Amino acid sequence: MFGRMFIYKLKELVRNRFLIGWNFLFPLVLATAFYLGFGNMIKDDPDSFKAIDVGYVNTAGEDTNFHKVIGELSEETSDHADILNVSEYTSEEEAMKDLKGEGGIYGIYVDDGNEIKTIVPFNGYRATALNQIVREYENKITLIGNIAKDHPENLDTALELVTKDMNIAKEYDFGSGISLYLQYFFALIAMASLFGSWISTEMIEGMCANHTEKGKRFECAPVSKLMSIASGVLAGASMQAVSNAIVVIYIEYVLKIKFGIPLWNVILITTLGSGLGISMGVLIGALVKNKRLFDIIPIVFSMTCSFCSGLMWDQIRQMIQANAPILNKINPAALLVDCLYTRATYGTIDVYYQDIGIMSIMIIGALTISAVLLRRRRYVSL
Amino acid sequence: MSTSVVAIDNLVKRYGDKVAVDHFSLDVKEGEILGLLGPNGSGKTTTINCLLALLKYDKGSVTIFGKEMKPESYDIKSEIGVVMQNVAVVETLNVYENVDFFCGLYIKDKALRKKYVEEALEFTGLTEYKKYKPMKLSGGLLRRLNIACGIAHKPKLIIFDEPTVAVDPQSRNAILEGIRKINKDGATIIYTSHYMEEVEELCTRIVIMDHGRNVASGTAKELKSSLVNRETIRIGIPNRTDKIFADIKEINHVYKVKEDGEDLVIKCDGGEHNLVHVLSYLTDNNIPFGHVSTQLPTLNDVFLEITGKELRD
Prior knowledge:
heterodimer, A: mainly alpha, D-Maltodextrin-Binding Protein, domain 2, elongated, B: alpha/beta, Rossmann fold, Alpha-Beta Plaits, 2 domains, six-stranded mixed beta sheet, four-stranded antiparallel beta sheet, 34% helix
């Protein structure tokens, strides 16, 4: 029954011209418009990621593993662009003189051979990256320590890893030419994902007796309401995910705008975004009773969230982050943009996983609340 | 004795202060076509929604096939077909897919479902339109599709909620004929309408509703026989005198004579040849008369007598 309903729901959605137009064609048109508007700026953006200027002070008196690591991160290889631009100083005081951000250095590493002291007084992605490099290095060192203790026979191989596989850049795709203008494309994908909410509100409308006669027919049938809705949710999410994937492929391969993220990873994130849009729509459908609001709220919701995530003005998300960061954490579109941007700029750091975690929690939460509200029941009025 | 298919006992449904269904009871026997007749807003659809466990009600009970009807009574629901007042189909699916989709909510076996769907299309005369999308169908065909979606799974109990609203006479007749056939094939029918002619023509028993109450029930004949007025004769008599009035009043079964413009309206409380008796009197006394008509009581008269207003008010 579930499979049959899923297939019919999918058929129903694929043939819905309104949904095809807005959820699939409109993002393609908007992506093209963005490309025509600032496609070249993305390719030659002066604000694209540049190697981070950092000071290095060696107080150990000998070459250290960390020194080798940052040396490697300062070189452009086939795997990554140069991430760090290291200036070596003889003392912390000397380095402090240059610690002025723009025009100087953004942080200082003080290396005594055992511990790395990180001095990063500025906020922003550079600070995050500088701290993350040290954290990652220390994790590896701890791992090596454990290997030395538990499996001394493998120590040589492990030590080799310190110098060879301390290639943080492989995990953190820094410097892949990320432009701030890319945010517009990320916001566009987020918008397309939230348009999925229209799919689910329309679906809920057709499945609940208090909204339509078709809903009455469903509720008179001997099938579980939650199962019917679940099949619809899956069909909606599948359609939205495919639609998003096509938009992503179009941007990357037709418009030749590089996301700086492996394609499978972008599609994975946008699939999560599709789930987010669909589940938000289900929640709206479960909460809203008024027929007129039923049509208006998903539009207002998706457009407001998209606007606040930087669809029309790239600085708005940063402005919200500075003044009311919680809004960025509850705005599904902002979360999706942040997730894509973080992944593209810093790689798979904590913030990326945090965004994924929050989005997953939102999906589960929205569907759980909706299931409670929509479970089989009698209505007070029809 | 026929088994009870639907039993509604003392049902009360309020919307705030307004009582939509007021201590309403109903017993539908197997094989019946029960007509639920009442003006718009009389509580017919609310009663049906309570019956289908879609609406919460304040008091009373609903039993179908001997079991209490609840939202999760899937065993009962699998034996019920509902034809909604408004067309309830999926716009993006074609005729065949619509019937197959809704039938599939009841029938899991693919081969059996295919057979049922084809039979439903045949029955409603939609076979040649099976590839059409609903938007391409005329109003009458759309209504037929609505019916096909509600009956394809061959339910034992079918509820038709005003299925002929806004339907042309030809489609209406086809729908009524179809309902008769479904009933003949064994289904029990509950048919709600505010069209008394339809109900009278189709239903084996009628329940008249007003203000959520069951104001009268019985066969059409039983309901009409409960009326004082059994025949209304209207005759155009240009030269009327008091004597004519008095003489006609003396004719057996005539209980009321009144003027209505050029006409004389004569009401009779029984008898079989009242018109013959009145015309004999007029010809015997050389009283000239013009047009003549006679009218037997309708369900509207029943409603009028019980509630003091017309069904279509």
